[in-house]
Amino acid sequence: LFRIIKERTRAQHKYHVLNLEYKQKVEKSSDRKPSVKDGASPPSEGCLHCGGTHGLCECPSASEEDRRRALEKLRSQRGRGRLRSKAVRNDKRQGPKTGEVLVNGMATAPHCADSGSDRSIIPQYLVDELVELGSDVQLTLLSDPIVATVAGGGQVECTHEVVVDLQLQTAAGMVRVASVACLVMGGGETGFLLVDEMLKSLGIDVHRQLEQLAGGDAVLDDDLFEPEAPPADTDVVVRLDDMLVAVLREGFDPSLYEELRQLM
Fold first, then answer.
1. What are phi and psi of 163, to 5 degrees?
2. What is the Cα–Cα distance from 194 to 113, expressed in whole angstroms?
3. Which residues sit opposite 107 in a β-bridge?
């Protein structure tokens, strides 16, 4: 029980620290190149279609065909070396740290594992960075815009979604999830929000853990993080968790993960 509390607290602390660093980075970028409206920092070269101070998916004059052509043109330019220096600087091929999510194996961002969201959400600046790095990101126009509520009670309208591959660090090891549909959000959002249902399919149910903690009869001493002597079957549990993670890495369907976990 103490291990769960400790891991949860460390993950939340790491997320808030990383989120603060990203917000400071966005604010500095806004100071150097002010925009006429609040929102995420625009790409370094402006809109890929009209050159304005907004992201490609927010361009009022770009059609779906215009967006497709702009992305193809940018990938072609990168192939000739125009964006090579930035790609080398960002594409380090390293796994994410605790509290981070690696998107398409190229760019990382802090993630919130207890967002309460019913859809995974990727910030606009991260989509733009993936495009500049040459990732095969396809923006899809939603038939009906979705209004998402952000921290502080504000609302942001999402008009596009993308499908990406994710990699994140958990207490049981590295987890990879393929083909995750995410809403694209501007409005200054800097963290990656993970849908609760996806976390539950991986055996990560934060709400359930907190409910068990609240309903438990354990007597807590003054030091919540004082380690307890591990139970006799700890090695067995750890070994089973390692086996489950290995199954996921071999392409096991994440939606069946919880059922397999219960069987074991």
1. -115, 120
2. 6
3. 103
First to last CA, the chain: 20
State whether residue 213 is helix, strand or coil. helix
**Contact predicate 119/198, CB 8 Å:** no
For 25-30, what is the mean pLDDT?
A: 60
Q: Which residue has the tokens 């070269």?
A: 45
Q: What is the pLDDT of residue 162?
A: 92
Q: Which of 151, 168, 226, 165 is nearest to 202 (CA)?
A: 168
pLDDT in tens, 92-126: 556 677 778 888 888 888 877 655 667 888 888 88
Q: Is the pLDDT of residue 159 over 60?
A: yes
- Please enumerate in sequence order all residues whose Cβ is within 8 A of that of 206, keeping only pairs 6 or more positions apart, or say none: 8, 113, 114, 199
Domains of the chain, by residue range, sit at 2-201, 230-264
* pTM for this prediction: 0.45
Residue 29 tokens, joined: 């970028």
Buried b (16+ CB within 10 A) or exposed e, 10-22: ebeebbeebbeeb
CB 182 within 8 A of CB 117: no
Burial class (CB in 10 A: 0-12, 13-18, 19+), 27: exposed
